[in-house]
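User: Um, any thoughts?
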Amino acid sequence: MSTDWNRLRHGLERRLNALLPPRWTTLARLQRADPGCWREIRPAVDVSWPRALGSGPLPENFRACLATRFPACGVLTLPDGEVFSEHGWVFTRNGERVPDLSMQGERVQYAPRVHRPRLTRRPERLRGRTVSLVGLHTTCSYFHLACDALPRIELLRQAGHNWGDFDHILFPRYLTPSTERLITAAGVPRDRVRWVGWGEPLYVRCEELVCPSFPSAWRTVAPWVAEYVAGLRDFGPVARPRRLFVTRRAGRRLLRNEAELWSELAARGFEAVDPGAMADAEAAFHEADFVVGAHGAALTNLAFCRPGTKVVELVPSDQPFPYYYTLALARKLDYGCVICPSDFEQPRDPLVSWHSPSDFTADRSAVIALVDRMLAG
């Protein structure tokens, strides 16, 4: 009987969520109601991007995704605030979501349709003060953990907070050798961490919730974020510069002709590396003077490259996201890219969140010609 009742409640919840419009608010509205709830750390700033890369004109599909404004960054404090799901959606005590704390920033109209549970769950109560460092995709991606979750710690610091201010720390459980090193370097006190994993049905109500905002803009890395991530590691002098060909071992968006490209790059002094299997991937990227790799989270390690390092990103045509272009620009790298045809392309609004599952193939002659041109000078 209880199983049937649970199924009925879940079914009713889904129907309600499909029918009812999402309830949301903005930082501006919250600040008008309570001016002390928001501490601005970095003001909003307009941004423009170079129209040319080392490989030629900036691709049009890149330009469609580039932010033209970095929203203001800061820290929001909410009494009886709630955090729901592994994406860290924040709700006020009266059930209004605050999507502009997330990657959507000021583009609240593009935020996914999310309601807090009404019938199926009650929130877990967290006493004292809680800080949430969980954001969209931070529990499943090295890039999002490094360039979204961790820089929020710097916003907390600049707002005058220290770890001793918090009884609970909501933090993404995406633990790899690289993320473990960065989390340790950021000084996160693990004894107070409430780890939030991918797919975890998180739903908590906090006596006082402190929320640093998303630190960059949609698919675009702010320069200060790149500098913060780079500053988490300290490296000695480079004894022998390296040329890296970054292989991709993920389950989707695989480079079909990786072996064919590798045979050409090996003849030019490149070594194939799998950052996920390396003892210290960040140090390897710091030693590199040339990096070639497919679009993917492994290129987050470009943050640790030395200024002037040459980069060629192989970008799938079905996922032309400028994460690593803007990261490379912030780190003063010599960046070029080759747009590579995906097996299939799905026409979508470039401002809507999506990730392509499609494998892709690089034009070998175009990649090698670009590499040779950048090697020459």
Notes: The chain has two domains: 74-214, 242-376. The CA atoms of residues 258 and 273 lie 12 Å apart. The domain at 242-376 is CATH 3.40.50 (Rossmann fold). DSSP finds eleven helices and 16 strands in the chain.
